[in-house]
What we know:
This protein is mostly helical. It has one domain (5-80): Methane Monooxygenase Hydroxylase, Chain G, domain 1 (Up-down Bundle), CATH 1.20.58.110. Helices cover 81% and strands 0% of the residues. It contains 3 helices and no strands. The longest helix is centred in the N-terminal third of the chain and has 33 residues, at 5-37. The radius of gyration is 17 Å and the shape is elongated. The mean pLDDT is 92.
Amino acid sequence: MANTKSAAKRSRQSLARANQNRSVRTRLRTLQRRIRGGAKPDVEQIRGLISALDKAAKRGIIHRNAADRRKARLNRRLAKR
């Protein structure tokens, strides 16, 4: 338990941020599964996922290099079409 008001507030803030970040990461995983599972992924789906990866990296939810790696794999898959 927090000893001061400010520590209690920081605890509440970090819990709220963790919940928000978890939902973003879950959404990214869901979008990736939809693309990976489908026989022919839609171009718009791939572009939407790339955009979501960029936003998550910009906000620090996932690492910038991880986002770049995933985008490279998606672009390779897009080029195969």
